[in-house]
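A further point concerns the way the authors explain their paired sequence and structure data. Nothing conveys this as quickly as seeing an actual entry. An entry of this sort, consisting of the sequence and the corresponding backbone structure tokens, reads as follows:
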Amino acid sequence: MKGNSDTRKTRFFGWGMKGYWYMALNLVSYENDGNVISESMENTNDNGVCMSHMGFRTLDSVYCGKYLKTLTISGVATSPEYRRCGCVRQMLNKLFEMAPERGWEVSFLHPFSFSYYRKFGYEKVADHKIIEFPISKLDFADRFPGLKPVDSEERAKDCTKIYNEFSMKRNIMFKRYGTSIYPTSASGDKKTYIWYDAASKPASYITLRSEQYFSVNRMESVNLHIHEMAFTTPESLMALFGFIRMFEGEDKRVKIHNCAMSPEVDTVLKHYMHSSYTLVPDIAARILDVKAVLRANRYPAGERGCFTVKVEDSLEYTRGVYRVEYDNGQSEVTKLGDDAEYDLSASMPSFTQLVYGYDEYTADKAAYMDGVEICNPDSKFFNVFHKKHNGLFEHF
């Protein structure tokens, strides 16, 4: 990121297993790419030695066509001699304490271990999906050279417009403000190309990289890597596939990364027997504002109903019984008393996975989830939370 930064340190004192510790909270805000605040937290012992570190940012992520204020956590590391001393737990607890004031409604991270972060309320909500196939199997799409290289700030801004329109029909994807993510230099490995429709509207873009090696007297192809495909109409997606065909003769195979949130890609591919699919567990989430997420869900138009769910969590401000009443797409969420009756009860990890629609759940299927108790198998809960298209292009 570019731009000026503002660094401030705040220390939080406490007691650890290896003596006194304090956390130095470094706040660094960048003016570039708008509204993105990058921060870091260190867990330091009484001798000033950094035992553990994590970075975190405040972003906007998509949920059911709305933006939720989001805490992302990355770069979590602890020196070996200080592991299993509660360093990460102390830092996470501090972030959870800060959440109501910061307005964070959900948190995401890429876990090294899902079972480790499940202890803190996180659960898997998205996979990294990769599709590979011979480039010759794109014969259903006409070759199309009509894309333009993204070699200017204006075209990069148009990519951001396409991305934000594309992402509003997905889940988890972060709102983009600037253009730094799109390579505009001709010297880089990755290249981005954009397509404008007949009305000159920016409609789709693709970021790709050709992987080759030199053999004897010529370059040999490994893969044409597709890192981002964002599109707004069926025609604009076919334009991207037609452009990929322009690499025939140079590349033999296509490898599409980060496409779990794009079922349309799989829909238009025709030669399924020649395609291979890889799913890698990717993103874990935990809800920090239950009311906000329940309100943000997309409820069916023309229908009325209600359900009650109990959320079990270590955080007092999320734990409780919630009643949701919805009518013609609008909803009202009320937090009830702890002794109120409920249709189902779920631990925070399972509740997060249910409402983020990692899979299509029924009462029978949810009963097998850890920490889930079904009291009313006919609950309307399962009528309004369905499988969602979750994923991200970037890694944070």
Summary: The two ends are 13 Å apart (CA to CA). The longest helix spans residues 87-102. Residues 1-8, 13-20 have pLDDT under 50 and may be disordered. The domain at 7-109 is CATH 3.40.630.30 (Aminopeptidase).
